[in-house]
Amino acid sequence: MSGQAELGVMAATVEAIDDCWNRIGVHGDKSCPLLAEHIHCRNCQVYAAAATRLLDRYALAQDAHAQTHVQAPVSVGRSLLLFRLGEEWLALATRCLVEVAPLQPVHSLPHQRSRVLQGVANVRGALVPCLSLGDLLGLEPGSPVAVSARVMPRMLILGASGGAVVLPVDEVDGIHALDPGQPASDTATDARFTEAVLQWRGRSVRVLDEEQLLSAVNRSLS
């Protein structure tokens, strides 16, 4: 799905869900009578119910998407977004991306115990599910990485079958046209999510298998 089409899905979601937090809540004129009790919209049951309905949409949309999604062949000079998660550098095909955005606050959902689903983030007025990519890939927490003060965490907004999802990452290097690298070993513990491994500027970069990644994203939202 293209970036413009994906943003259209997000806009349609906003139209279907009454985003009162943008009209009379903390992002609107603050005239909602419930603010006196809840202080912030994220503490309100209306906000939580809207987030729950959003997640239900993803599950309903997955079957239709599975019939039309076809994996494109890997080619030399492939367009990849390179980013860092903890100590590890990863790459993902740009065709999966809607955009890269500044990091936004993530609001947890009541009674949500999934390690992967962290909550929802407000992306231009739309509630978008936020997932932990590290937990999704099964990465072990590493030691803190010393980085420049100019390095800022970012959110990757991906186009999943039911709409956009947010994946926070620690650093984004940019988009590069790179050789796909060496195929991943089938015996590797992370081979299910790794399509290839390439060497780039002295770093070993895992190229994520977009089909497997999006499938795992969809499962975590169903």
From TrEMBL:
One of its GO terms (biological process) is chemotaxis. Coiled coil: none annotated. It is found in: Cytoplasm. One of its GO terms (cellular component) is cytosol. InterPro entries: CheW (IPR039315), CheW-like_dom_sf (IPR036061), CheW-lke_dom (IPR002545). It holds the Pfam family CheW. PANTHER family: CHEMOTAXIS PROTEIN CHEW, CHEMOTAXIS SENSOR HISTIDINE KINASE-RELATED. This is Chemotaxis protein CheW. It comes from Pseudomonas putida (Arthrobacter siderocapsulatus).
